[in-house]
Every structure is written in C-alpha cells, then in structure tokens.
Amino acid sequence: MGVSDTVFLSAHEALGHACIQRCDACGHDLSPLDPSPECPSCGGLLAIIHRAPVDVMGAPLSAKAIQHGFMQHCCALPMGHPSGVWRFESLVMPGAGDAITSHPEGNTPLMARRRVSEYAGCDGLLLKHEGYNPTGSFKDRGMTVGTTQAVRTGATAVACASTGNTSAALASYAAQAGIPGLVFVPAGKVALGKMAQTLAYGAKTLLVRGDFDACLKLVQEASRELGIYLLNSINPWRVEGQKTIVLELLQQLGWDAPDFIVLPAGNLGNTAAFGKALREAHALGLISRIPRLVSVQAAGAAPFAMGFRDGFITRHTVQAETIATAIRIGDPASWDRAVRAIRETNGLVISCTDDEIVDAKVAIDAAGVGCEPASAASVAGVQQLVRDGVIRDGDRVVAVLTGHVLKDPGMLVELHQQRPDFAKANRPIEIDASVQAVADVIAGSRTEAA
Ligand SMILES: [Zn+2]
C-alpha cells in the first residue's frame, strides 16, 4: 500500500483534526489550514484525507446515521443552506463554519429524458446536469470549497490561470467572498467571448506578456510571495467539492448505486474526484457496490484513453485538438489519481470523434436539455458502449453533463446558421410579415415531423 492509499485517517493519524492535507508522493502531512499549493517537501500533489465521521462520543457513525446527517445538515444551518456541496460538509471540509462561501450550488437535477435515452440506445440512462450550477458548470462545486479555504486562511486574493469555466467560477465566488479574484492569461491569446463571465463578475484579468507556461509560473510565484491563494485544477479542496457530484447523485438514487457513471474527461480532475468519492462512500458503507466509472475523451485529445489501452504503463501526452474545448487537454494534471479511480472501479476509458460529440450534442440540445460541447462526450460514450455490448439492457447509467448550453454560443451559431453542409441544422427562416407565411412554416414543420 503506497503513502496515498489510505481512505480514512485513524484517530491517531488525525492529530485532533477532522481532516489533513497529505502529499500523494511522499506522505508529508499538512494541517487543513496550510495554504501551500503543493507539498513543501517534494512539490507533490496534496490530497485531503478525512477522519471517518464520528458521533459526539467519538464512536464511528453508521452508514444510516451519515446518510441521515446529510439530509439534516443543510436544514439545520442558520437561515438554511440548501447547497448540494455543503450538505456533505463532513466529507468535504469539516468545520468550515462561518467561512462558507456559497451561492448556493449543486442540487442539480438527475433527469430521465426519453429522447436522449432513445438516442443513446439505453433505457436506463439518467443525465446529471451540472450546467444548472450558478455559473453554468460543475466548477462551482470545487470553487465554493476552494474559496471557503481562501477565506478561512485569510488569503489576500485568489487566482488561477484559465480562460474557461474555471475562471468564470473563480470570479463569481471571489466576488461573493469579497476578496479580489485574479485570472492570469497570455496576452493576445484570449478569445474575449470566453472571458465574458469572468469580466462581468469583476475578476481582474491580467494579460501576461508571455505564453501559458509563463502565466502558470507567475501565478505560482505570486501566490508564494503575496499571499494569493491558488485555485488551479490541482487544488485539493476543489477536488473535495467535485466529489459531491457523485455523492449527490447517489443520494438522489437512494444510495442504490447505478451500474455505470459516465463523464467527459480532459484534465482528469473529475475522474480523480469521482474515484475518491466512490472509494469513500463504499468504505463508509453508504453504497454496497461500486459503479464502473467511464471516462470519455475526445479522439483528438485522448492521451488517457491511449494509456488505458496499454494498461497505463505509459503516461502519454498529445497535441490536443477538438471542438470540445473544455476537454482539449494534451497532458492531464490528475493522471495518477485518475488511473487509480479507473482501476478501483473496474472502469473504462474510451474516446469519441468530434462528429460523434457534435451529433450527441445536437440530440441533447433538441431534447430541450442542452449542454456545452464537451458534456455531450458522455452521451456519445454511452451510445458507443451500448453498440459494443458493454452497457446492456437493464443497466442503470448516469451520464454527467458538465456545462450549460450557453457556455459555447459561438459553436451553436456556427452549427445552425453558418454550416451549409450540416444536415441537422435548425436554420432561422426569414418570412414576409403575413399570417399565411407563418401557416406555411407550421405546415412545413408538420411534414418534417411526420
Ligand atoms: Zn511530498
């Protein structure tokens, strides 16, 4: 057993804390209030290791008692706090108390949608739609916890290097906490459309004269010297927040685990977080069996799928290219943890082409559900596994949709209005200002539908 294989701390190891931060590489332990972004001894990634929940006498709680606690917790807080993250506080950030910075977030729906099920060929398909979070993506779940850590450690500011969903979430939660949010991006390399939410929520956007690596280096140095708290993808508290996607969907299913949980995979933060959530839930007896995790990559950004095929003997990197920008990652940061997640859950890693992802997205959108392009990889993945006979009749499958349909409006305009070759385009129709013209359009759609 390696240093990072512990699921829960013993009382002896916990040294009076409800959780600690432990280095994955060397096992060095830090207090939960240490703001270091990485292991001070070896530079390794930090993980949060919890003590299993106990009662007031210090005795371990039963699974039933823990589940009951999740139900009671939000309602028991002053003013009520219906957050789908902080309901699970005892397994996320015990004792966060007044520092909690919440909109709230989570409590996202688990949807059964006949048209999407038919598309995927899977009757038992449910969609866990993380686009219903306050800034429109799952990142809010990690960011509420990361920002709370910044508040309780007295950070002067929070920062990340990103132009996508992460910076939108950071900007929103920094504003909520009342501390400055800083987003570092390479000057001249940013599509301002992607930054729109970040600018609106008031984060300072620093256009660094240099490339993305220069941004990362600067944000790390600035965090060490200026007391800025780093909220990049390897922040251990963000992982804890992202675990609640799984805890919440298990709770929604009455703790009767599905057969498969299928998710889009880029930087592998969610694959790692989902694996940790399932490991902990199983160790506590919250679930009696572990669902198979399926990480779905875009074919043009599939180093982890390549690794899976060779038994993870090689850590692959690729020059990533895909329309699904949120998973366009060539060198995933959370590789080792994701390998553990796939191994422990008898999981799978597959890839889908951009055409398959777009096709699935169009089906999800047209069902009135909608999602960002990367999200559709999960439904495309389900369709592939049904075709390959891996997912069978009667299997219960949860596919995670990570972001809202409005996250990538540029792609929608292109698909539906600008691509003459796209057969499923829903083109706007220009008409004369007459009722007859409207009647003709309705008659036309009836013919199409028939
Ligand atoms: Zn270390």
What report would you give on this structure?
It is a single chain. The protein has about 450 residues and is of the alpha/beta class. Among the domains are: about 110-135 and about 235-410, 3-Layer(aba) Sandwich (Rossmann fold); about 155-225, Rossmann fold. Helices cover about 40% and strands about 15% of the residues. The chain contains 15 helices and 14 strands. The strands form 3 sheets. The protein has a 6-stranded mixed sheet with strand order 5-6-14-11-12-13, sandwiched between helices. Helix 4 packs across helix 8 (about 235-250). The model has no long low-confidence stretch (mean pLDDT about 95). The structure holds zinc ion. Zinc ion binds near residues 23, 26, 39, 41 and 44.
List all distinct small molecules, including ions and cofactors, that are bound in this structure: zinc ion
- What percent of the residues sit in helical stretches (DSSP H or I)? 25-40%
Biggest sheet strand line-up: 5-6-14-11-12-13
Between the first and last Cα atoms, what is the distance in angstroms? Answer: 61 Å
What is the overall shape?
globular
CATH topology of the domain at 110-136 and 237-410: Rossmann fold
What is the typical, i.e. mean, pLDDT? 93
Please report the first level of CATH classification, the CATH class of the domain at 110-136 and 237-410.
Answer: Alpha Beta
What is the secondary structure topology, with strand pairs?
Elements: E1 8-9, H1 11-14, E2 19-23, E3 29-30, E4 46-51, H2 63-76, E5 110-111, H3 114-120, E6 125-129, H4 139-152, E7 157-160, H5 165-177, E8 181-186, H6 192-200, E9 204-208, H7 212-226, E10 228-230, H8 236-252, E11 260-264, H9 269-283, E12 292-298, H10 303-309, H11 335-344, E13 348-352, H12 354-366, H13 376-387, E14 397-401, H14 409-418, H15 435-449
Parallel strand pairs: 1-4, 6-14, 7-8, 7-10, 8-9, 11-12, 11-14, 12-13
Antiparallel strand pairs: 2-3, 2-4, 5-6
